[in-house]
Write a structure and sequence with these properties.
Distance between the termini: 38 Å
CATH architecture of the largest domain: 3-Layer(aba) Sandwich
Structural class: alpha/beta
Strand content: 5-15%
CATH superfamily of the largest domain: Response regulator
Largest sheet: 5 strands, parallel
Shape: globular
Radius of gyration: 17 Å
CATH class of the largest domain: Alpha Beta
Order of helices and strands: EHEHEHEHEHHHHHH
Number of helices: 10
CATH topology of the largest domain: Rossmann fold
């Protein structure tokens, strides 16, 4: 029997996932972490067979934590379980080493199946993610502007597109408003956009905003 840990800053989400995974015969124990730092500390003290990781958490986001996990625990599979659609983060997560990417709208039986698939040593890739990955290898396909952004810049981009303010994003990410403003400036430069209106339009046109 195997052990897993769930990292999500919402208690109700963690408890709900634990309840659902009670139907997974592969697992005997599921621990909890309320943010990325808590997760890293617990994985340094205890061995796990699977990690379920949210993207949008206070402090370091899930992609940054995933990259750190790949350095410290390269053999532990990580499933990203997020509110964000596959179009927004799936490819970044898979490229960063995730064994699977699921949205929180997934049906309970699908979640159990995904966990069992990953615990068996395979990746869990949906057909839509597989299609996106295939498109990445199309040599004739030019790189989209948002793909030039760093993970943190991309996170700020998505939050700005959803209507969040500079101050609000700064509070959520535990950064200064000046730092977020700098990220915004870099985003506009890299994507050749003039203002937030163009940024929001780009995100909706490319299905990067909910």
């Amino acid at each position: 029997m195997k052990k897993a840990i769930i990292a999500d800053d919402h208690v109700i989400i963690r408890k709900g996932i634990i309840h659902i995974l009670g139907g997974c015969n592969e697992l005997c124990e599921i621990d909890e972490a309320d943010d990325g730092q808590d997760l890293l500390e617990k994985t340094r003290k205890k061995n796990y067979d699977l990690i379920l990781l949210d993207i949008s958490m206070p402090g370091r986001n899930g992609i940054e934590v995933l990259k750190q996990l790949r350095i410290e625990h390269p053999k532990i599979p990580v499933i990203i379980l997020s509110i964000h659609s596959e179009d927004q983060y799936a490819i970044r997560a898979i490229k960063s080493g995730a064994a699977g990417y699921l949205t929180k709208e997934i049906l309970p039986d699908k979640l159990v199946h995904a966990v069992e698939t990953v615990l068996s040593g395979r990746k869990y890739i949906t057909s839509s993610i597989a299609e996106q990955l295939a498109n990445q290898f199309d040599e004739n396909m030019s790189k989209a502007p948002h793909e030039r952004l760093t993970d943190r810049e991309y996170e700020v981009l998505c939050r700005l597109a959803s209507g969040a303010t500079i101050t609000g994003i700064a509070q959520e990410l535990y950064l200064s408003a000046k730092t977020i403003s700098t990220y915004r400036h870099r985003i506009l430069q890299k994507m050749n956009l003039k203002n937030n209106a163009e940024l929001i339009k780009y995100c909706f046109d490319n299905k990067l905003a909910d």
